[in-house]
# Entry
Amino acid sequence: MSADEQELPARTGVALRLDTGDRLRVVNTHGSQVVDLWAMAADDVLESMSMPHSRNPWFRLAPRPGDILVTNLRRPILRLLEDSSPGVHDTLIPSCDSERYRQLGAPPDHGSCTDNFHAALRAIGVDPPRAVPNAVNLWMNVIFQSNGTISIAAPVSKPGDYVLVEAEMDCIVALSACPHDLPPVQLNGIDCTPHDVAYAVIAHS
Ligand SMILES: [Zn+2]
# Structure
């Protein structure tokens, strides 16, 4: 981990304020961890990064370097600047939550990205929306097949892969190291074990 990076422990979340032009690097330290990334306007958490609105001009399922991610009001909020991984990220599947884990038969106290989102915003003094916004699920490998079905496979990223995004407006971003650990779904890698990741904010100079 480089000197400017903070560790985000497995199964936890964090929220950060970014000014326009600030950059956020998210590092897949162990290579197989999915990280949900949300962004909301600094002055209105109900204006949030939206995957359907973002995919519309991309005409692709996942962003590539140079692509802009927009809000539900179609305003640019983040731009993907760099991606050292093969670029496999999910924009289709909603963040995990306690109801989804109940459906999957997990223990009632199983953590979730939605719980992490709510806790992370409260930790910086922001009242979070009850309904979690769309995230881009970094490194989540959702395979869309020509017959219209989708499936989840292990990430194809490698240890140390990173993405770098830049804030296009003053915003709040949140990250969750997804706690999914339920085999046989290899969402967080073939060992079905959540791992820590790292992040760094590079302030606009
Ligand atoms: Zn999750």
In short: Residues 113-123 form the longest helix (11 residues). The mean pLDDT is 96. Residues 6-202 form one domain. The chain has one domain: 6-202.
